[in-house]
Amino acid sequence: MAQEEIIFPNNIRNIRASKGMRMTELARRANLSLSAVSKIEKGVRRLNQKQLLNVCSILGCKLSDLFIHETDKYADKWQNEIKRRLTDNEGSGLKVFGSGLRKIRQRADKTIAEAAKQANMTLSVYHKIEVGQREVYENEIEPLAKAFGYTSSQLFDEIAKLYNAGELNKQINKVKERVKAVLEPCNPASGMNMHCGLYGAQLYDNARRKLIPVFGGPSGKSIKFKKSDEDMIVAPASLEGCCCVYALVPNSKRLGGVIPESSYVFADTSATPVVGDLAVFVEEDFESITEKDIVNAHIAVVRKDSNGKLYGHITNPEEKVTGKTIHKVIMVMMK
To answer: What per-residue confidence (pLDDT) applies to 167?
Structure first.
């Protein structure tokens, strides 16, 4: 029997259970079917960026909490389950058949969508067959073979020929490595301070590429600044993949209406601000700030004093601010 491969090992079930929340409640609040949530918790279906943030909000956790840590007591269980499913699919011949079908499709210069349509299958079903996650039923073989100009017998013969010639090894190994990669400990390239390497760090990075952390918002006259992924938003298209960027909720009145209310300010830690730029002035050294630290920051227009030192100018009330770190504001976006 085919085993759907685990592509999203996660802590969602454990976090949900710790909150005393039933799966039905999570499904209702996340606007997902019960079946979808079950598959997500089993790791055989992913969430998109908006869904990830929504689940974090419902469960009251950070994005990084959803992903398996190397030190988690559940990490070994996920790893063993991945290996078991991989072995089951290889032993049943599904990997060989799927890899052979992919080779034939590529040789015929067809896309997955074209092959699925010609075989009278949904794209999802056809894709699962190619990656060895689903059996092929007897009534499906003939239309599948016909899509590539074969009879059923010819299709099996061609796949056997490809396998015996060693032409499928590379494709089988590529699928295997892709699946195994979700549980390889590595350091995420997101720029966030993680307590330890993550299993599935590549998955975290893929999600993180389309998300931007919100490091703070107004608190009195300043901004309460916390370098954490506790609060994140979907990145504007032009900022996707920019791991050096973070967002703040500004105190618009302090800036005399220069920035509209209900907006986000995006700052780039790699961009050097110059006189006239809008910038974030962080009172402490940015690199030394940890996830647990809370420091003050200000959004102000960059000015230069008689000694050539940069400072920030705030208009309401007129005020001068400084910071050990200054980050250029590169975008303002309404919420």
So the answer is: 84
- Which of these, 323, 231, 334, lies nearest to 280 by C-alpha position? 323
Q: In this predicted model, which residue has the larger pLDDT, 253 or 223?
A: 223
Backbone angles phi, psi at 194, to 5 degrees: -95, 145
| CA nearest neighbour of 192 among 70, 331, 61, 287 | 287
Whether residue 230 is found in the same domain as residue 330: yes
Identify the CA nearest to 182 among candidates 98, 67, 94. 67
Which three-class secondary structure state does DSSP give residue 116?
helix
pLDDT at 180: 65
Q: Residue 267 is encoded by which pair of tokens?
A: 């700052």
pLDDT in tens, 17-44: 999 999 999 999 999 999 999 999 999 8
- Domain, as residue range, for 158: 88-180
Residue with tokens 């759907």, as numbered in its chain? 4
Same domain, yes or no: 171 and 215: no
Mean pLDDT to the nearest integer, 292-299: 94
The residue behind tokens 């398996």 is 68
169: domain CATH number? 1.10.260.40
- Give the count of domains, the chain: 2
Residues 6+ apart with CB under 8 A from 249: 214, 216, 217, 218, 223, 263, 264, 265
Average pLDDT, the chain: 88
The pair of structure tokens assigned to 150 is: 């074969």
- Token readout for 189 is 């390239």
pLDDT tens profile 97-125: 988 999 999 999 999 999 999 999 999 88
In a domain, 259, yes or no: yes
